[in-house]
Amino acid sequence: MRQPRPSTLWSLGLGLLLICALPTVSWQWIRATSAVHVEQKALLDQLAKAQVVYLGETHDSKLDHNAQLTILRELYQRQPQLAIAMEMFQRPFQQPINRYLAGEITEAQLQKLTEYHQRWGFDWEFYAPVLRFAKQHQLPVIALNTPTEVTKKVSKKGLDSLKPEELTFIPPVNEIDVSNTAYRQKLEQIYEKFHPGHASESGFERFFTAQVLWDETMAEKIAQTVSKNMDQLVIVLAGKGHIEQGYGIPDRVARRLTTHKGLGQTFRQYTVYLNPTDEVQQLTNPPAADFYWTTP
User: Fold this and answer.
1) What residues contact 295, with CB distance under 8 A and at least 6 apart?
2) Under CATH, which number does the domain 27-294 receive?
3) What's the Rg (C-alpha) of the chain?
4) What share of the chain has pLDDT > 70, as a percent?
5) Facing residues of 53 across strands?
6) Is 47 exposed, middle or buried (0-12, 13-18, 19+ CB in 10 A)?
7) Chain segment 206-237, per-residue pLDDT in tens
8) CB 214 within 8 A of CB 150
9) Distance CA 226, CA 263 (A)
10) Is 246 left (phi over 0), alpha (psi -120 to 50) or beta?
11) What is the pTM of this model?
């Protein structure tokens, strides 16, 4: 067998030294209120002591989904009593999720039985690693979302159009709070972008009510999950718009739980905005989230 020349060995050794000398790429945590970087271990320790942690995603961002899985694993190491609440599944389809976690059905069957591709539609592999992790460690997964049929009906005809069976999967109508003026203005700007020049006031009101219903439905389920096991950490995977500035889900969860008999002022939740743009990081009063997680 031919031996490598000394010069070759030297080159290989130098290459290994250079590789070892390269800095390790790590995620960066930023405290939104101060724009100061936060030490990762200390922050994860802090998050693990909360009742709820929101990981706000852009649905088609692979970077965001990688971040979610990384944070999930880190928090599980610190707090194994953990549940995963997912916007991606609608509330009527909880049973198939439970069956998948119990090993009774396959991933393919789970997708079919939850009507995943019709009701959500983003690449399954964005979320499959989280579900596999939950199954491996026997962690509950909670279906959060409002049924598509209900949301669409409210956006076209209003809450009064819902039938008793459609009310089953949403909070009581008197708990659907549309009083947040800042949230209304934010959504009005979005609405006008898609309906320039011919947006009617009644059309926006139905749109706004449907969006709030979406938030309230998810908030109710999160609050119920926390109430059933107050020693458990609930990690919420949801779109960034549902957590931004707290207006969507977080404020509505807090409304339900800060007056909870067993929690009161001890209730803690944190929002994490994954890979925010510069524009998002400029939001103040309130900031977009408690913390930003960025990819270097």
Assistant:
1) 27, 28, 63, 67, 275
2) 3.40.50.11550
3) 22
4) 88
5) 235, 270
6) buried
7) 999 999 999 999 999 999 999 999 999 999 99
8) no
9) 10
10) left
11) 0.88
